[in-house]
Write a structure and sequence with these properties.
The chain contains three helices and no strands. It is an all-alpha fold. Helix 2 packs antiparallel against helix 3. It is rod-shaped, with a radius of gyration of 27 Å. About 10% of the residues have low confidence.
Amino acid sequence: MSGYQRLTGSNSEELPRELVELGQKIAELPEAHQPEMSRIYEQVVDSARRRRRILTLVQEALSQLRLDIKYLMFDLQVTRDERDSLRQDREE
């Protein structure tokens, strides 16, 4: 089954083990059942890869958000320190 080979060749490390095993079982099916099962398997694999890409994008966005928050907190603290320093200078 060539569709199975294309889907699980070099990218099998990004697929869950269960999906790889399912692809292997589909490859062992009689030729009459492979086309339909292959099509469904390809849809499931595409969906799994899409979810993985989305998860990676969300993780990257969260990491960037955390970094941005750290910078903002630093800026806020520096601004407060400057404000307090200026107030103290004005009172003296």
